[in-house]
Amino acid sequence: MSHWIDRCCRGIEALIAAALAVMVVLVFGNVVLRYGFNSGITVSEEVSRWLFIWMTFLGAVVALKEHGHLGVDMVVQKLPPLGKKVCLAVGHVVMLYIVWLLFQGSVAQARINWDVTAPVTGASMAIVYASGVVFSVLAGFILALDLLRLLTGRIAERDLVMVQESEEAVQLQQILGPKDDAQGVRR
Fold first, then answer.
1. What are the TM regions of this chain, as residue ranges (predicted)?
2. Dihedral of CA 163/166/168/169: which sign?
3. % of residues, the chain, pLDDT over 90
């Protein structure tokens, strides 16, 4: 299952890269055409905005899978393993509830805006709200799998804190690779 999720995340990362490339071409091309030739790409702003929304939600899915979201773990680090497990379970249940609320709201907005067309492209505005639906389904799946791993005891003690304290610490860990903790366990 983990291998399949990894492959899906790699596909999502490829989609994000493609969306970013299209955004760069549209925005840069529009700037050049406006200042150089007094014309422009009509759909540039609208499509770029939509791609940015989709990139944000898809990037959040990848970050959730890789436990790359920032957080404060000062208190949780001091707890015994049972306390860490309880905090992780409560956190995941709360996140699942929030993802459920996001799913309901996104579906409702997609339905409301199904017949509303964008001013330039004429496409349905439901495309914007579909990003929330896709995010909430994928995030809910990842969160449920993490919670299942916790409840079945298939999660290591070092993985009980699933946040990163700072971006610098994440970058340093990526540069230096895994490190040994106080018990000599490789992280």
1. 12-35, 47-65, 86-103, 123-148
2. negative
3. 47
